[in-house]
Amino acid sequence: MAAVRRINGWQRIGIVLSVLWPIIVSVCAAYDYHHAIQGYDSVFVVWTYPTQQIEADARRQQDRQFAICLEKYPDKSGLEHLHCMADAKAASEATSSVFLERRLLWLRFLSLTGGSIVSSWVLVYLVVWAARWIARGFRLDRT
Q: How far is C-alpha 95 from the chain's CA centre?
C-alpha cells in the first residue's frame, strides 16, 4: 500500500491513460473491421484473396458449367459445345476475382496498443530524467 501512495498525480494520469488506450484502439479496430469497404485497405483491415477458397469455388462452378454444356450439347466435337465450354471457363475466372476476405492486421493492432504504451512511458521517463539532470547542473553552478 505504501508503494501506491508514492505514485504522484502525473503517474496516475499515465496509468489511467495506459488503461484507456487499449480500449480506445480496440473500439477503433472493431469499427474499422465491421465498416470496412470491400477492396479498400484501412489502418487495421486489409482485403486479401483467400486463394484456396477461390480455386475450389472456381473449380466447382466450372465443373457445373461443364456438366450443363455436356447436357445441352452431347456432341463434344460440335462448335456449340466448344463455345459453351469456353464461356464456362471465362465465367469461372471472372467470378473468382469477386471473392475478397477482410483480415485484421494483428501486428499493427498490437503495436498501436502495447507498443505505443511502452514507448510512451519510456519517452516520458527519459524526458523527466533529462530535465532533472539539466536542472541539477544549474543548481550545482550556484554553489
A: 25
**52-77 average pLDDT score:** 72
Domain-by-domain residue ranges, the chain?
A: 2-142
Per-residue pLDDT of 91-133, as tens digits, reads: 666 555 556 778 888 888 999 899 999 999 999 999 999 999 9
Closest CA to 85 of 102, 69, 101, 103: 69
pLDDT of residue 142: 63
- What SS3 class is residue 41? coil
Smallest CA-to-CA distance from 112 within 24, 46, 52, 35 is with 24
Looking at residue 37, the DSSP 8-state letter turns out to be P
H or E element in which residue 36 lies = none
- What phi and psi values does residue 48 have, to the nearest 5 degrees? -130, 165
- The number of beta carbons lying within 10 Å of the beta carbon of residue 127 is 10
Position of cell 504522484? Answer: 8
Grid coordinates belonging to 43 = 489502418
**Distance of alpha carbon 137 from alpha carbon 142, whole angstroms:** 9
pLDDT recorded at residue 15: 94
> Model-level pTM greater than 0.90?
no
Q: Which residues pair with 101 in a beta bridge?
A: 48
